[in-house]
Design goal:
Number of strands: 0
Distance between the termini: 86 Å
Helix content: 55-70%
Order of helices and strands: HHHHHH
Structural class: mainly alpha
Radius of gyration: 29 Å
Shape: elongated
């Protein structure tokens, strides 16, 4: 059976799975993977490049959501601020002063029993 390579590449560009392409081309998935994987991968890479190009165009046009998403994907940006705490002592071994320093400022108005008074 002869596979229409141009159609196969077009199907891969559309994002179809190998099984879906095989069904349309009326062949087995194994045949496509064995004989035409390079064509399929080329089609998928073309699709990915087209999507990235369109996302970039949206971002440059001012789409804030796309700007944020691309910043996270390509620039390593993140919404989360992570801080690293290195514990050199067990909490049980810390002095009251060390525990207070770790906890930060204490608001006496939040003390149990003093609410609403």
């Amino acid at each position: 059976m002869q596979i229409d390579v141009a159609l196969l590449k077009k199907l891969a560009r559309l994002g179809l799975t190998t099984a879906e392409m095989a069904a349309i081309l009326e062949c087995s998935k194994d045949t496509l993977e064995r004989r035409h994987m390079k064509v399929i991968e080329d089609g998928r890479q073309h699709r990915n490049a087209s999507l990235k190009r369109r996302q970039y165009e949206l971002a440059i046009a001012g789409n804030a959501t796309m700007l944020i998403w691309l910043g996270k994907q390509f620039l390593g940006q993140s919404d989360k601020h992570q801080s690293e705490v290195k514990m050199t002592k067990r909490l049980e071994d810390m002095t009251d002063e060390e525990l207070e320093q770790m906890a930060g400022p204490y608001d006496a108005t939040q003390k149990e029993g003093s609410r609403g008074k």
